[in-house]
Amino acid sequence: MPQIISGEQFMEVQKKMNGRKNGAQKSKQEYLLSGLVYCSSCGSLMTGNARKNSSGTLYISYECSGRKQKNGCTMRSIGKDILEDCVMDALETKLFSPDGATNTADVVMEYMAARHTELPAEVQHLKKQLEEVQQQTDNIVKAIAAGAYHSSLNSQLSHLQDEDEDLETRYKKAVEKLWATTLPKEKLIEYLTSHSNVKQKRPEDIKKIFQTFVASVTVHPDRVEIKSCVDMNGCGGGI
Ligand SMILES: [Zn+2]
After folding, report:
1. How far is the CA of 23 from the centre of ligand 1 (A)?
2. One pLDDT digit (tens) per residue for the chain, 239 residues
3. How far, rounded to the nearest angstrom, does the alpha carbon of residue 34 sit from its chain's CA centroid?
4. Ligand 1 geometric centre to CA of 66 (Å)
C-alpha cells in the first residue's frame, strides 16, 4: 500500500488522536489556585482533580493530596468553581474595591513606615559625613591658596577626594533605596483597583492575580480561609 503521509506526519496524527481519546477534557482544566490551597485537617496541599461520578457527570475539584495518598485524612474535596469564585469575591471586596484598596493601602503604609524608620537616619548620617569631608577639602584648598603649601596637603586632598566619591555613591544609593520603598498611597490604591472586575478577566490573568495576591487558601470543613498581604476571611459554609 502506498504511504500517503510521511512517518513523521503519521506520528503527529497518532498523537492528536490519542490526545482526543485520553481525556482531552482533563488537560484543558486550568487550576487557577494551583499550589495555594491547603487542607486544614492534615496540612497537605489540595490539588486539582477531575473525575466522573457513577452517573458520568464530570466533577472538577481541589482534593486533599494527603487523603488521596490515604494518610487517614477525611477532608472532602471542594468544587473548583466554588473555591475559585470564593477567592475572587474575597479579593474583589477586600483588595480591589475602592474601600478595600484604601484599607489595604493604610495597612501597607503603616507596615512600611514601621519597617523603614532606620533608613532616613542612615541617609542623614551619610549626608553629614559627606558635608564634613567637603568642609575639610575646602579648608585644605583655602590653606593652599593662602600659600601654606606642603606636599602632605596634596596627599590629604587626594585621600579626601576618594572618600568624597565613596560617600557620594553610598549617599545616592541610600536615597534611591528610600525612594524605592516610599510608595505613594494613591499609586497603591490605583494599582489595586486596576485589578477590579477580576471575574471578567481571562483565566491566565486571574491565575496571575491569584499567584500575586493570595498567600494561601485553607479549606476547612465549613469555611475557607484566605491569606493575603492583609488577612481576609473567605466564604463561610457552602462546600
Ligand atoms: Zn487533608
Report:
1. 26
2. 444 445 555 556 555 555 544 444 445 689 999 999 999 999 999 999 999 888 888 999 999 999 999 999 999 999 999 999 999 999 999 999 999 999 888 887 777 777 666 667 888 888 899 999 999 999 888 888 888 777 788 888 899 999 999 999 998 888 777 766 667 788 889 999 999 999 999 999 999 999 989 999 999 999 999 998 655 444 543 33
3. 15
4. 5
From ligand 1's centre to the CA of 73, what distance in Å? 5
CA of 38 to the centre of ligand 1 (A): 8
Ligand 1 centroid to residue 74 C-alpha, Å = 6
CB of 202 closer than 8 Å to CB of 215: no
Task: Record the cell numbers describing residue 109, joined without a space.
Answer: 503604609
Rounded to the nearest angstrom, the distance between the alpha carbon of 22 and the centre of ligand 1 is: 29
Taking the centre of ligand 1 as the mean of its atom positions, its distance from the CA of residue 49, in whole angstroms, is 14
Pairing of strands 37-39, 216-219: parallel
Sheet holding 46-52, edge to edge: 46-52, 58-64, 78-79
Distance 77 CA to ligand 1 centre (A): 9
Give tens-digit pLDDT for 205-230: 999 999 989 999 999 999 999 998 65
Q: How far is the CA of 148 from the centre of ligand 1 (A)?
A: 83
